[in-house]
C-alpha cells in the first residue's frame, strides 16, 4: 500500500511539473514583421508600376494573419501590429496586401506578399515580407508596317476573369489584368476604308509583375496579313485583298 501511495505521489509531481512547463504563458510566441515592396516589372526596359498606376508606401499595406486551417487570426494596417501580441504556437500564413486582389482595368494595380511561418514557444519570429505587383500589365502597340497600311483599329480584350477592356487606337494606356489568359477581338481598317473583323484567344502562362505588349504588325508581300504578336505567340490573320486592285 505504501509503495502504491509513493508511485501515486511521484505521478502527481510529474504531472504538476509538466503542467507548469506547458502553461498557457509558455505556449505562445511572437511575430516581428517588416515589409519591402518593389514596383519594378519585368520587360525589356524594367518599367515601373508608378508610370501607369498609383503605388503604395509600406504603411498602406494590410497585414493578414491566418491559421493553417484558414481561420483569420488578425487583420489590420501593418503599422498597427504590435510585436507584443501573443500568438499560440503553430503554423500561420502571413500576408500583406494593397489594392483589390483580382480587380482588373486601367490603373488597377495591386501588390501582395505571402509567407507560411511557424510560431515557436517563447520565441520572436522576425519575418521579412517582399511584396510585388500581383497582376500583370498589357499594352497595345503597332509597327510602322501596320500603320503604313491600316488607318485604324478598335480592339476589345476579354480577360479570363470576364473583364472587358476597350482598346481603340487612341488608347495609349496599358491595362492591369490577372496573370491568366485573355481573348482579343475587334476590327482593323485599311487606308482604303475596308474593315476586317477578327477574334483570337491567348492562353499563355502570363506572370505577375511582368509587362507584356500586344504588337500589331502587317505583311504586304503577296497579299496582306494582319499579324498579332504577343510574348512568344504569333497569330497571322490572312486578309483576302489584292493590293493591285
Describe what you observe in this structure.
This protein is mainly beta and 245 residues long. The chain has helices at residues 2-21, 144-149, and strands at residues 28-37, 62-67, 72-77, 87-88, 90-98, 111-119, 124-133, 136-142, 150-159, 164-168, 175-177, 182-190, 195-202, 211-219, 224-230, 233-239. The strands form 3 sheets. It has a 7-stranded mixed beta sheet, with no helix packed on it. Strand 6 and strand 7 (124-133) form a beta hairpin. The longest helix has 20 residues, at 2-21. Residues 1-23 have low confidence and may be disordered.
Proportion in β-strands:
over 45%
One letter per element, helices H and strands E, the order comes to HEEEEEEEEHEEEEEEEE
Name the helicity range: 10-25%
Query: Taking Cα atoms only, what radius of gyration do you get, to the nearest Å?
Result: 29 Å
Low-confidence stretches: 1-23
Structural class: mainly beta
- As laid out across the biggest beta sheet, the strand order is 3-2-5-6-7-1-4
Give the SSE layout.
Blueprint: H1 2-21, E1 28-37, E2 62-67, E3 72-77, E4 87-88, E5 90-98, E6 111-119, E7 124-133, E8 136-142, H2 144-149, E9 150-159, E10 164-168, E11 175-177, E12 182-190, E13 195-202, E14 211-219, E15 224-230, E16 233-239
Amino acid at each position: 500500500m505504501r509503495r502504491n501511495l509513493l508511485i501515486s505521489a511521484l505521478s502527481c509531481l510529474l504531472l504538476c511539473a509538466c503542467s507548469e512547463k506547458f502553461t498557457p504563458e509558455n505556449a505562445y510566441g511572437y511575430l516581428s514583421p517588416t515589409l519591402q515592396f518593389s514596383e519594378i516589372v519585368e520587360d525589356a526596359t524594367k518599367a515601373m508600376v508608378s508610370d501607369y498606376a498609383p503605388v503604395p508606401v509600406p504603411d498602406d499595406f494590410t497585414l493578414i494573419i491566418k491559421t493553417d486551417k484558414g481561420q483569420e487570426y488578425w487583420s489590420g494596417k501593418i503599422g498597427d501590429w504590435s510585436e507584443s501580441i501573443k500568438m499560440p504556437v503553430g503554423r500561420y500564413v502571413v500576408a500583406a496586401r494593397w489594392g483589390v486582389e483580382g480587380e482588373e482595368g486601367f490603373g488597377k494595380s495591386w501588390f501582395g506578399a505571402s509567407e507560411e511561418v511557424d510560431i515557436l514557444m517563447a520565441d520572436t519570429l522576425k519575418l521579412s515580407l517582399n511584396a510585388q505587383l500581383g497582376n500583370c500589365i498589357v499594352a497595345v502597340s503597332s509597327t510602322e508596317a501596320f500603320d503604313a497600311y491600316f488607318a485604324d483599329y478598335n480592339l476589345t480584350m476579354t480577360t479570363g476573369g470576364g473583364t472587358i477592356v476597350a482598346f481603340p487606337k487612341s488608347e495609349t494606356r496599358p491595362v492591369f489584368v490577372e496573370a491568366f489568359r485573355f481573348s482579343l477581338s475587334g476590327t482593323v481598317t485599311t487606308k482604303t476604308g475596308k474593315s476586317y473583323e477578327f477574334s483570337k484567344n491567348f492562353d499563355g502562362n502570363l506572370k505577375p509583375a511582368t509587362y507584356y505588349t500586344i504588337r500589331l504588325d502587317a505583311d504586304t508581300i503577296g497579299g496582306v496579313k494582319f499579324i498579332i504578336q504577343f510574348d512568344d505567340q504569333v497569330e497571322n490573320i490572312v486578309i483576302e485583298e489584292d493590293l493591285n486592285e
